[in-house]
Design goal:
Elements (H helix, E strand, L loop, with lengths): L21 H6 L14 E6 L3 E7 L5 E7 L8 E7 L4 E6 L8 E7 L2
Antiparallel strand pairs: 1-2, 2-5, 3-4, 3-6
């Protein structure tokens, strides 16, 4: 149980059907009962073969690691940076973005 959405929801539940677990939303300062508040990163700027800037919802003081992979395959992920959020949106610029396709993963570092 716990305070995740509704009486029957647990930390892994997601009654708002936004694809993000209630626990993940709660830890990031999002409302687990609001389907419009999903944890999703977006590209805010791209310079092909040079840099990619990502942005995602956050909470002041949360720390994140940013990972990149060319294929999504296990073992292909490279940590490309970390940051501590200073507001409700975190941003990260990968200054060594590859010229081809790349996938990014944002990890919340929990204390």
């Amino acid at each position: 149980g716990g305070r995740f959405g509704h009486a029957g929801a647990g930390a892994q539940g997601g009654p708002d059907a936004d694809g993000t677990s209630d626990r993940a939303e709660f830890l990031r300062g999002l409302d687990p009962t609001d389907g419009t508040q999903a944890f999703r990163a977006t590209q805010s700027a791209v310079v092909p073969g040079s840099s990619v800037t990502l942005a995602w919802p956050a909470q002041d003081g949360l720390t994140f690691k940013v990972w990149r992979s060319p294929t999504l395959a296990d073992g292909s992920w490279l940590e490309v940076g970390s940051l501590t959020a200073t507001g409700t949106t975190a941003t990260f610029t990968d200054l060594a973005a590859p010229a081809g396709r790349a996938f990014y993963r944002i990890e919340l570092v929990t204390p």
